[in-house]
Amino acid sequence: MSSPVAPVQPGSELYAITLRQLDSAARLMGLDGNLHRVLRAPKRVFSVQVPIELERGEVEVFTGYRVQHNINRGPALGGLRYSAASSVDEVIALAMLMTWKCALVRLPFGGSAGALVCDPSTLTARELERLSRRYATEVSVLIGPTSDIVMPDLNTDGQVMAWIMDTFSMHAGYSVPAVVTGKHVSIGGTEGRLEATGRGVFISLVEAAKVARVGLEGCRVAIQGFGNVGSTAAALLYAAGCKVVAVSDSHGGVYSPRGLDIPMLLVYRRTEGRLRGVPGTDAITNAELLTCDCDVLIPAADDNQITAANASAVRARMVIEAASGPTTEEADRILEDRGVLVVPEILAGAGGAIVSYFEWVQGLQESFWTEQQVNERLETAMTEAFNAVLTTRERLGTSFRAAAYIQAIKAVADATEFRGIYP
Ligand code: NAD
């Protein structure tokens, strides 16, 4: 099939994989060729140049992107990342993945994504603020509470969201909190947003364990990445009676077959700034963690971690993907052949998008929910989506990942077909 999208550029593996996932799901579900061509193409790809004056007086010009992939199911929702490795292809892929994620968990949103190509570790807080505000101004023709809502992603947080929201509001002349999500509660954010992705991963594990008939009590879990997502999931799993046997950060990790004391580990990490050296634990490398003796593996760090080189050695019976793109296509086939249940990131990592939607709804209604209400509604949304994917998997006899993609793509394709091709 000919692609209306520009050819894949070198270094944009994620884009190539994302298109192949769409093509493969389209084949399995017998998607109409016209709809397939529409879904392959991002609706809008916007590139901006962002000049800012650095503290030393020089002006540097950064490149930024905002991409809206598909908005047939509602306004776009998508992250903003600050990364020196970002490219337009990566942003198109992330926007497409957001379209599928929002559709899969039935949010009335399309998918978008944004990036500023920069290394934030080399910038001062003042420079980051200028950069964020100027980027917000440049993309203000696209973003908005009813057109494209921005949420945090790699190297952006509630502070960056506050600068974007404030800049957008300054241009509007009044406060527009719903243009971003992931903002602090004091400026219209929601309870439960910070923990939402980790909580969604936890809920996915609970549901997957039911399918694999594994009890939670004593279930051995290894988690790669102990950041926002990994540490929240670890704390919830520990509280639920699981044995978290291994956790790691980019410097390596710790392992204990008896189960780690996660509350103690969180305090140790806060005070010592690292995981290595926790009393009563063994050191473990990130590579060893992926193949350690456990029932569940949660990659919650980087992409490309489970590959053809280590997939055969993975001992877990379930993989709950929290990171974006942690499993390569070859590894996915190997895990599938070995009967490992893989819950894909578009489902397991959807908690953040779901609670972003809750934040948006609360902001527009100017009526706010308790943390318990947020968490209960998150659990309902995640378990309903999980069970719908299970039904699709059983009906079509596909992998869990293929079923998730087919279900998401069908929802977007249906909306596109009902609306028709304008004019
Ligand atoms: P974070 O920056 O808070 O934490 C990342 C953790 O991974 C840190 O402990 C870091 O030391 C570790 N790490 C980084 N590279 C590593 C490597 N190569 N090997 C082992 N450990 C490594 O990030 P986060 O918000 O927890 O996100 C983690 C992953 O989840 C990312 O892939 C992100 O895209 C994905 N994700 C996050 C959200 C969200 O709402 N935060 C939503 C969906 C998906």
Number of strands: 12
Calculate the terminal CA-CA distance, rounded to whole Å.
24 Å
Would you identify the CATH H-level superfamily of the largest domain? NAD(P)-binding Rossmann-like Domain
* Biggest sheet, spatial arrangement of strands: 9-8-7-6-10-11-12
Residue share in helices? 40-55%
User: Biggest sheet, in brief?
Assistant: 7 strands, mixed
**Helix/sheet category:** alpha/beta
Q: What's the level 1 CATH class of the largest domain? A: Alpha Beta
CATH architecture heading of the largest domain: 3-Layer(aba) Sandwich
Q: How much is the average pLDDT?
A: 95
CATH topology term of the largest domain? Rossmann fold
User: What hetero molecules are bound to the protein chains?
Assistant: nicotinamide-adenine-dinucleotide
Number of domains: 3
Report the principal-axis shape.
Answer: globular
Order of helices and strands: HHEEEHEHEHHEHEEHEHEEHEHHHH
Low-confidence stretches: 1-8
Share in β-strands: 15-25%
Total count of helical runs of at least 4 residues: 14
